[in-house]
Each structure stands twice: as structure tokens, then as C-alpha cells.
Specification:
The structure holds two protein chains of two kinds. Chain A is mainly alpha-helical. Helices cover about 75% and strands about 5% of the residues of chain A. Classes of the chains: A mainly alpha, B mainly alpha.
């Protein structure tokens, strides 16, 4: 089957719904909402249905990728890039996530966006996002990946700023795009480096940016040991791109703000799919990173630090979506930790389970926000489990999953990451990870307890309106909760009697290391430790937020500075403003624009030289007064100077 | 019949607008509609004629559709026209933009319409002649001939301090071209009394000769591009020019500068160029960063786009200086992209101006609510301008940067790549202030969204943005052979 249908279907949906949106706006008519939903959801379901037989093909043993080359995109001299797609074991996993979880979130959106203006526009953007995301994942070369990479960034920008009348939301969209562009700068440099490395010897008609070409040649060069340093620099450049898209320190700042978008968008784009693109990219390019251990070290360190850093901010946030946003940053950190220790497949495994439980959490929070009439502050919630049981139970399951309780999905994926980190000799990173895992469990149960337990703390009016969401919203919740439960069972480690099928299926990188009997003991102890930490986190949250709520306030009062530091997210936004944004604006305004451009170049140089010419003309004009006596004076003066000169020289 | 057309197609294209202007002289000046339709007809006819070039262009190097006829025999001046892969697309860009500009002007020009449309047609011939001439005398004639109608278009139909802007534009350009004229006269004698470019290319110039001539030519073209720090005429001219004038200025006239570099300065004086290119490349990179930063803090939409043009043209010049197949092909392609994208931006700002009569960003806000269709179009063009993959802008910028990176100007390419971030900053910030939020004020007066005529203006540009972004090879395969010959000149040297 030609893979282009995966792109064309959502693109068709985007074009149709976009046209509906434009035509309705032009004629100032109501949008045909049923039709819009049918188109948007229809294309997603068809795409998902088409993906299943392909996935089964791979699951039942297929190893060679499916290729679809459409046309040559850019050809200049011996540089050539094709518009080509490829599906292999890695991308088929993401294809299923994107179309599957994507379909669920489209369905959810039908309920969530019911009362909103711009319904057709919303679904057009959402379909366009899916099309771009599939280009990113299926792209057979780096430039196709970049096409999708920027495409998803565009959709993210449009959807964050969906309610553009609110200036703060429009600004959040802009911030996301610009911070991502900083990352893209690295991505582009990586591509340029690869081009200058391979183009001089490239044969005409060979696409040097295609992954198959890069894999073969980088591998060959790796054997010859000529590419150790370049591979590192190139890998670092691409990782800068990943830092932007996947919200790692120091480029994570856009993601919390991105919560300004509609909640299903947060679930789809800013949790399940787009933000994991950086992880996917590294898995896709693992052959490059295999040659650059020091870059992997760096990636692992960034991942572990981000995991801990973001989790610590999440401890005290009051906005239900902000907690989940920092949680996403933190979980992405775990994935990069896995990448950094060379456990690529495990990172992708966590990517998948995260897509399930985080989408479930976000959609659950959307359901809560919906019931609360737009309220997002968890201090005004409480006791919601009675009025919205489905939302509560699914949210609880996803919370248990992310906290790492067995046998839920993230127990297997997160534990595997920490074990791999430890086992491959990165005990410090593993330690940071365990600490972050403890915090994860705490902030997630804090969130759950404050939202669903205790007494309702909102207004009477809100209380009156509390309701469970319609089936369009609860059905996706239920499905995702099931996936959050069983999603990890495809990667049960050998220790627990599983076969780590998922990791074997992907077969990325070096595979697993030799395991000895004493390793088994370690693995088991770490497993016990991580379950213990999850329990401890839950227990602490219980003590602080259910048993006796004054403890939390007490603690905040006891450490006011620390509390404020966390609450204000370590003042990172303020620091960036003070160090980067404002100086650039100031220098551009006062120095470049006003001083250099207006004063110096325009007034002094350009108009100055014009004035000099003009004044010269005035002098000449004055000299030529037209009076004979004056000319006679010039004549005499010149003669006398000449005589003077001749006589005395 | 076909043969006759094929042999004389360039003359037909050049003189159709001029003939249209001559006929226009005799049309009754009281009938505005007559002029509007007549000019549209003439420009469309010219466009259709220029499509002949696209269809029958043979994807190879060298002159095509050439016409060589003696003209002023006592001076050895020839009527010499030809196109190659580089000028072909610039000719088509010109003929493509002119009907759009005309159709746009229907709604913007009220008084003195006769002179306006005649000036447009004369300008049209001037631009086409400059792109097609392969005889330096002839080129110079058209080069100067373009100035006069543009001067009047800004001076009469502009707004604000229009006379000053027009005069600055005029004097600045003339000062540059006088130097070029001197250089041309020198070369004329050096070549034994010939103005033909192909005679000049085989001259064996000494290093010092090359240097002086290179400076004279490059200065003239650098003003036109404009290369930093010779750019200050541009923002003023743009702000004061009528929208149609801005579209032509940004879309076509600026390309005269970069085209001059490719056609004259670089191939004629390769030795001097070989020493000077790091300097010019540095100025180009300064132009990219500086232009972007200054664009960011502008308070007038047109000024902002004008400064962004300086940055975009910086990419073109950088690509030309890196001088390999990829960077130069990208540079030529970027000339076309900039013509389409900036042309479209100025057109859209013009449409906004006819509704609100203000260009100050602060007077806008929340337009996305009142003008949804206009906003959609503006966003598409914005993302083309910030080189989103899938649009035309990406292909050009990517090829330029990739090519430059793998030449010996890698560091320049890295700094220039920062422009990728900055373009997003200034464009999106402007979009945010103009279209988002919910500011009350003058702009909240019930504005009308795009009408049919405006859609007809903008739709072809949108199609080009996507087409040139997804299927650039249609264009690149015609550009590349010409660029290849250029690159070989240098490697032979």
C-alpha cells in the first residue's frame, strides 16, 4: 500500500474543514458541525484502520521497511532529496499511536469543543497536525522529517493561540514557535553538517539525506574511526532540535505556556505525539549517536536533570494543566535519559506508555475543567469523584500508571529505563531518576486528591453545574485508561517472566547487555525500590492533602523561599527575559534602529553627504556672483600669488 | 507564423507594454474603467507571451530566443536580447506580477489614473528590457529608464513625505549608476568598440583593471539590492510609495541589483570577486541580522516588511558569494521567492491600507476576528516569508544556507542561519499585534473582508507559494544549467 494515503487522508480532512471554515466565515453563516465532525473523525478512523494490517504485518515478523517514493523534491547538481515515505518497525509504533490516540482525541474534541466558535477551524488544524506529524514520522529523509517537524510546530502555534482574542494565549503560541525555531536552528545546522560531509563525494541521483543512506555510510565510517568527532557535533546539533521540540532544559519554557490551547490539543500535541518527536528523532538516528558516546552522556544528563527539575516545579503548581505540563516535561526527561544511556527501545517504550496515560490524564483534566465551567485551579476543586465517576476512575488509573504501580504500563517502561541506566553504569543518572519518580508519584497523587477527594471548594454555582461528561468524552477516557493499564504488558522483562517483546521488536542499537545472576538481584531490588518510592509518594500526598491539609501550608511557611522558587518555576522565564529578550529588544530599538540606522547611516552618511554637496554648491554659487569687480579681484589675487611664488621659490 | 513568433518573442514581450502605453495615450482620459481594463489586458497579454518562453525553453545553458541586430552602427551598439535560465524566471516573475498589480490598482487609484496606468506600462517595458538585454548599452538604457516612471509613481501617487522619498530613491540610484556607466565606457573601448556582454566576457583584464571596474559595477548594484549599509533609501521609498509601487519595488526592482551581480559583476571580474567575496558576504550577513533586528522594532508595517526585504536579499547575496551550484541556484530561486512573498505582503498591506488608511501597527489589533479570510491569506504569506518547509521560501533559504555551509563560508552560514529564528520573531510579533488580541479603535470599524477582485489578485500568489515550495524542480532545472556555466567560469579561472 502506498504510504501517501496516511498523509493525504488527514490533509484532505484539513482542506475540507478549512474550506468549510473559510466559506462559513465569508458568508457569516453557521458551520455544519455534524459534517465537520464526520469529516475530521472519519479520516482519522480510516487512517487508523489502514494502519492496522500494516502493523500486523510487522508484528508477525516483517523486517524490511515499506517504501513509497513520490517525486523528487529538490534536485540541484548532485544534491537530491525525494518526497519519500518509509514505514519500519519504529515508525509503525508511532503510526499506531498517532492515528489511534489521535482518533480518540478527535472523538473527545467533538464533545469538548461543542460550544466553541471556530469549530471547523479547530478540526482543520487538528487534521493538519496529524498530517504533519505523520510526515515527520514516515519521512524517509531528514528534510521530510524537517517538513513534518516545522509543520507540527505551525499547527501547535495555531492551536495554542486558538483563542486568539486573549492576548496571553496568542503570545503563548508565538513563544512556542520561536523557542522551537531556536531548536530548529540546531536541526538545520545538523543537516548542513551532514551535507558538507557527504555531498562532495555523493553520486548524482543519490539522496544523501535519506536515512538508509546515512545509516549505511555512517556505519562504514564508524568502522574506519574517521567520524568520531564529527558524529558528536552533528549529533549535538540534532539534539538541540530535540531540546526545542521535546521541551528539555533549557528550551522547555514554551511547553507550560502551551497549555493556553484547548485541552484536547494539550493531550494530543503537547503530551502524546508532537513533544515526543525529539525522542523519535534520536531513535531514528541512533546509528549516529552510537558513534558519539559523549553526546549520549550529555543527552542522558540533560534528560535526568530535566526529569527532576520539572518534577520539582510540578510539586507546587495550582493549575491542573500546569501540573500535567511539567509532568510531561519531566516524563520526556525520562525518555531522554533512556536515549542517553543507549536504551533507545526502552525510551520508545516509555514514549508509547506515556502517550496512553498522559493523554488519559489530560483528557481527564479537560473533563474536569469542562464540568467546572473553565476553572483550572485545583484549590477550588475537590470531591469531584462523586459527580464524575468515570473521569475519576480513569484519572486514578492513569495516575497509578504514571506513578509506577505494577502492573500498570509505566511500571514496566519507567522501571526499565532506570534499570538500564543503572545497569549500563550511569548510577548517578539513575539516582536522579528515582528521585524524580518519587516526586512524580507525590505530585500526581496531590493532584488527584485535591481534585477528586475531600470537599468541594468551588462556588455554589459551579457545584450546581457539576456533571459527568458526555459519552464522546468518556469513551476515549475509558479506552485510554485500559491502554494505560495493559500498554506495558508488551514489554515485561525476563525477570518477571516476560520476553521484553517490545524492545526486541524494535531492535534498536546494541540490544540488551549480558545479564548475570547478580544482575537479576540488582534488577529486583531496584524494582522493589521504585515501587516503594511510588508508595511513599502516594503516602506523603495522602498525609499532606487528605489527612491533614495544614501540613502542606506549614511546610510552605517553613521554607518560604524554596516554596516561592518552585511556585515561580525557578524564575526561568524572568531570567530569559532579563538576559536575552529585553537586551535584544533594547539594543535593536535604541542602538541599531535609532542610533545606527537613523542617526548615523541615514542622517550623517547619506543626508550628510547630500548636504555637503549642497553646501559646496552654495559656496561656488557665492563665488560666482556675476560682478565684474569681484572677478577682477580673483584675477589679481591669482596673479599676485603666482608672482609671489615665482619670485621667492 | 509560429517560427516568426518564436524568433521575435523577446521583442514582442518587451514592446507589448510600451505599445499598450502608446495606444493608451489616445484613449479618453475621462473613462477610468477603459484604462483599467486596457492595462489589465496588455499586462495579461504580456504574461501569456512570456509563457512561450517557459514552454519552449530548452533546459540547457547559454542564451535562448536570442535576437542580435545592429542598432546604432556608428557606436557599435546592438539591439541584443536573450534569456538564460536566470533571466527567464525574472522575466516571468515580472510579467506575472504586473497584471496582479494592475488589478489591485483598480481599487486604489482614483485621480490621475491615465498617467498612472501609462507609467505602469512604461515601467513594465523598462524592467523587461533590463532583464533581457545582453548588450550593456541597451541594459543601461533600460536600467535608467525604469527609474523615471518609478520616481513619478512614488512622487505623485505615494503618501506622506513622498517627494523626499522619491528624490532620495532617484538620486541614490543615479549616483550608483553613473559609476557603472563610466565602467561600461571603459570596457567598451577595451573591447574594441563593442557593448556586447559576450565580447566583454572574453577580455583579458588585468587585476587592477578588474578591481576598479568591479567596484564601480558592484557599488551600483549594491545600492539597488540594497546591501548594508546602502539600504536607507529603501524603507523610506516603501513607506511613502503606493502599494502597487511597493509591490513592484520589492518584487522586481530589488532583483535588478542581485541580477546585475550575477550577470555582470561576478562573471566579468572573477579575479576581483575572488578576493572581495568574504567582504561582501560579511555585509550580506550583517544585512540579515541587522535587517531582522531593525525590522523587529519597527512601528510601521511597511517599514517592517522593507527591513525584512534587506534581510531576505542578504540571503541572496550570501548565496551568490558562496559560489557553488547549490548556493547560487538557491540564490536565484530566492530572488523569485522574495518577489512572490514580499510582493504578496505588500499587496496585502495595501489592501489593509485602502480600508483603514493607516500603516502603524499600533492602530491595529484583533483583525483576525473582523477579517477572517484576510487573516488566513496573510498567515500563509507570513509563513512563506519565514521559510516554513513546504512553502517557496524554505527551498531558497535552505539551498543557500546548505551551499554556503559547504563552501569556505561555513561560519557566515552559521551566523546567517540565526536569521531563521529572527524572521519568526519579527513576523510573528507583527502578526500578533495586528491580528490577535481584541483591541478596540479605528480598526474595529466594520471592515469588509476580501472581495472578488482582491481574491483574484492574491490567489495566484498563494498558488505560487505552495507550488514553488513543493515542486521546485520545475523551476530549478531551468536555472541550474545557467548557474553551472557561471560556476565553471570560476573553477576554470
Amino acid at each position: 500500500m502506498n504510504l501517501i494515503y496516511f498523509i493525504l487522508l488527514p490533509l484532505l480532512g484539513a482542506i475540507l474543514n478549512g474550506s468549510i471554515a473559510l466559506i462559513s466565515a465569508g458568508r457569516k453563516k453557521e458551520e455544519p458541525r455534524a459534517l465537520v465532525s464526520a469529516i475530521a473523525l472519519g479520516v482519522m478512523l480510516v487512517a487508523f484502520a489502514l494502519a492496522i494490517p500494516l502493523a500486523l504485518d510487522f508484528f508477525s515478523g516483517r523486517t524490511d521497511p515499506i517504501l513509497s517514493s513520490l517525486f523528487s523534491w529538490i534536485t540541484v547538481g548532485n544534491f537530491k532529496v525525494d518526497f519519500a515515505l518509509s514505514l519500519d518497525r519504529l515508525s509503525v509504533v508511532l503510526l499506531l499511536i498517532i492515528t489511534g490516540v489521535g482518533s480518540l482525541i478527535h472523538l473527545y474534541s467533538v464533545g469538548y469543543m461543542k460550544g466553541e466558535a471556530g469549530y471547523a477551524k479547530y478540526f482543520a488544524y487538528l487534521n493538519l497536525f496529524v498530517a504533519s506529524m505523520l510526515v515527520l514520522v514516515l519521512g524517509e529523509n531528514l528534510l521530510m522529517m524537517f517538513l513534518g517537524w516545522e509543520g507540527v510546530g505551525l499547527c501547535s502555534y495555531l492551536l495554542i493561540g486558538f483563542w486568539f482574542e486573549d492576548e496571553a494565549k496568542a503570545k503563548a503560541g508565538k513563544k512556542a514557535f520561536i523557542v522551537n525555531r531556536v531548536g530548529d536552528f540546531g536541526f538545520l545546522l545538523g543537516i548542513f553538517l551532514l551535507i558538507s560531509f557527504f555531498l562532495p563525494e555523493a553520486k548524482e541521483g543519490v539522496s544523501i539525506l535519506s536515512f538508509s543512506y546515512l545509516k549505511t555510510y555512517i556505519h562504514e565510517l564508524g568502522h574506519a574511526h574517521v567520524i568520531f568527532i564529527p558524529a558528536g557535533i552533528i549529533g549535538l546539533c540534532f539534539f538541540i532540535g530535540a531540546m526545542g521540540k521535546s521541551a528539555q532544559i533549557p528550551l522547555y519554557v514554551w511547553l507550560p505556556d502551551a497549555m493556553a490551547g484547548p485541552t484536547p490539543v494539550s493531550a494530543l500535541i503537547h503530551a502524546a505525539t508532537m513533544v515526543t518527536a525529539g525522542v523519535y528523532m534520536i531513535a531514528r538516528m541512533h546509528f549516529l549517536y552510537d558513534l558519539a558516546p559523549w553526546v549520549l552522556q550529555f543527552i542522558g544528563a540533560i534528560g535526568a536533570i530535566t526529569a527532576l527539575f520539572a518534577a520539582s516545579i510540578g510539586l507546587v503548581q495550582r493549575d491542573i494543566k500546569k501540573v500535567l505540563a511539567y509532568s510531561t516535561v519531566s516524563q520526556l526527561g525520562f525518555m531522554f535519559l533512556a536515549m542517553g544511556v543507549g536504551a533507545y527501545a526502552t525510551g520508545v517504550f516509555h514514549l508509547m506508555t506515556h502517550a496512553f496515560f498522559k493523554a488519559c490524564l489530560f483528557l481527564g483534566s479537560g473533563s474536569v475543567i469542562h464540568a467546572m465551567g473553565g476553572e483550572q485551579d485545583i484549590r477550588r476543586m475537590g470531591g469531584l469523584r462523586k459527580s464524575m465517576p468515570i473521569t475519576f476512575w480513569t484519572f486514578l488509573i492513569a495516575t497509578l500508571a504514571i506513578a509506577g504501580f505494577p502492573p500498570l504500563s509505566a511500571f514496566f517502561s519507567k522501571d526499565e529505563i532506570l534499570w538500564e541506566a543503572f545497569h549500563r553504569g550511569h548510577s548517578l543518572l539513575a539516582g536522579l531518576g528515582f528521585l524524580a519518580a518519587l516526586m512524580t508519584s507525590f505530585y500526581m497523587f496531590r493532584l488527584t486528591f485535591l481534585t477528586f477527594f475531600g470537599d468541594f471548594r468551588g462556588t455554589e454555582e459551579q457545584k450546581h453545574h457539576l456533571h459527568e461528561s458526555p459519552w464522546t468524552m468518556t469513551l476515549p477516557l475509558i479506552v485510554l485508561a485500559i491502554l494505560s493499564t495493559v500498554g506495558g504488558w508488551v514489554g515485561i522483562p525476563h525477570l518477571l517472566g516476560g520476553h521484553a517483546q517490545f524492545q526486541n521488536f524494535l531492535g534498536l542499537g546494541h540490544g540488551s547487555l549480558e545479564v548475570t545472576a547478580s544482575d537479576h538481584l540488582w534488577e529486583l531490588s531496584l524494582m522493589v525500590l521504585s515501587v516503594g518510592l511510588a508508595l511513599l509518594g502516594m503516602l506523603l500526598a495522602y498525609v499532606f492533602y487528605i489527612k491533614n491539609q495544614s501540613y502542606a501550608e506549614c511546610l510552605a511557611r517553613r521554607f518560604p523561599r524554596l516554596y516561592r522558587l518552585l511556585l515561580n518555576k525557578y524564575y526561568v522565564d524572568e531570567i530569559y527575559d532579563a538576559l536575552i529578550v529585553n537586551p535584544i529588544k533594547g539594543i535593536s530599538e535604541t542602538f541599531f534602529s535609532k542610533t545606527v540606522d537613523q542617526k548615523f547611516i541615514n542622517q550623517v552618511l547619506v543626508e550628510g553627504s547630500a548636504k555637503t554637496v549642497k553646501n559646496l554648491g552654495r559656496v561656488l554659487n557665492w563665488l560666482q556672483s556675476g560682478q565684474v569687480s569681484v572677478y577682477a579681484f580673483y584675477f589679481l589675487a591669482v596673479i599676485s600669488v603666482a608672482v609671489f611664488y615665482l619670485v621667492f621659490s | 507564423m509560429f517560427n516568426w513568433i518564436d524568433q521575435n518573442i523577446l521583442s514582442l514581450i518587451i514592446f507589448t507594454p510600451l505599445a499598450g502605453a502608446v495606444v493608451g495615450l489616445f484613449l479618453p482620459s475621462s473613462q477610468r474603467r477603459v484604462f483599467e481594463i486596457w492595462t489589465l489586458f496588455v499586462t495579461l497579454l504580456t504574461f501569456v507571451l512570456s509563457l512561450h518562453l517557459v514552454f519552449y525553453f530548452d533546459n540547457g545553458a547559454g542564451y535562448q530566443f536570442a535576437i542580435f541586430k545592429p542598432w546604432i552602427q556608428s557606436l557599435g551598439v546592438q539591439y541584443a536580447l536573450a534569456v538564460d535560465g536566470i533571466s527567464l524566471w525574472l522575466v516571468v516573475l515580472t510579467t506575472f506580477l504586473m497584471p496582479i498589480v494592475t488589478l489591485f490598482s483598480w481599487g486604489a487609484v482614483g485621480e490621475r489614473h491615465k498617467a498612472y496606468y501609462l507609467l505602469l506600462l512604461i515601467l513594465h517595458t523598462g524592467m523587461l528590457g533590463a532583464f533581457m538585454a545582453v548588450d550593456a548599452f541597451f541594459f543601461y538604457l533600460f536600467w535608467e529608464a525604469m527609474l523615471i516612471p518609478m520616481y513619478f509613481l512614488i512622487g505623485i501617487y505615494g503618501h506622506g513625505d513622498k517627494i523626499k522619498a522619491a528624490t532620495k530613491f532617484f538620486i541614490y540610484t543615479v549616483v550608483g549608476s553613473v559609476l557603472m556607466l563610466l565602467g561600461m565606457i571603459y570596457l567598451y573601448f577595451r573591447a574594441g568598440g563593442s557593448f556586447l556582454l559576450q565580447d566583454w566576457l572574453v577580455l583579458d583584464l588585468s587585476t587592477s583593471e578588474q578591481w576598479w571596474l568591479f567596484l564601480a559595477f558592484t557599488l551600483s548594484f549594491a545600492i539597488k539590492v540594497p546591501i548594508f549599509p546602502l539600504h536607507t533609501w529603501l524603507p523610506e521609498a516603501h513607506t511613502q510609495a503606493p502599494a502597487a509601487g511597493s509591490v513592484i519595488l520589492a518584487g522586481v526592482l530589488l532583483k535588478m541589483g542581485t541580477y546585475g551581480l550575477v550577470r555582470f559583476a561576478i562573471p566579468l571580474f572573477p579575479q576581483a570577486y575572488d578576493q572581495a567575496y568574504p567582504v561582501i558576504a560579511s555585509l550580506a550577513v550583517v544585512g540579515i541580522i541587522y535587517g531582522s533586528l531593525v525590522a523587529m522594532v519597527q512601528k510601521d508595517i511597511k517599514k517592517l516588511i522593507a527591513y525584512s526585504s534587506i534581510a531576505h536579499l542578504g540571503f541572496v547575496v550570501l548565496g551568490l558569494m558562496a559560489f557553488n551550484e547549490q548556493s547560487m541556484t538557491g540564490a536565484v530561486y530566492q530572488m523569485l521567492n522574495h518577489g512572490v512573498s514580499s510582493g504578496a505582503l505588500f499587496l496585502l498591506v495595501g489592501m489593509l491600507y485602502t480600508r483603514t488608511h493607516t500603516q502603524a501597527i499600533a492602530n491595529y489589533g484583533g483583525l483576525a476576528k473582523t477579517l477572517p479570510l484576510f487573516t488566513f491569506v496573510f498567515m500563509v504569506v507570513t509563513f512563506s516569508s519565514i521559510a516554513l518547509p513546504g512553502t517557496n521560501g524554505f527551498v531558497g533559504e535552505f539551498m543557500i544556507l546548505a551551499g554556503t555551509f559547504y563552501s569556505d563560508l561555513s561560519l557566515w552560514a552559521i551566523v546567517a542561519s540565526l536569521g531563521v529564528i529572527l524572521s519568526a520573531v519579527y513576523m510573528l510579533w507583527m502578526v500578533e499585534r495586528v491580528f490577535f488580541g481584541k483591541k478596540a479603535g479605528e480598526s474595529l470599524k466594520p471592515l469588509k473582508d476580501l472581495n472578488l477582485r482582491e481574491w483574484l489578485c492574491i490567489l495566484p500568489l498563494l498558488v505560487m507559494i505552495v507550488w514553488m515550495g513543493l515542486k521546485p524542480n520545475f523551476f530549478l532545472e531551468k536555472i541550474e544549467p545557467a548557474v553551472k556555466t557561471l560556476v565553471e567560469i570560476k573553477s576554470a579561472f
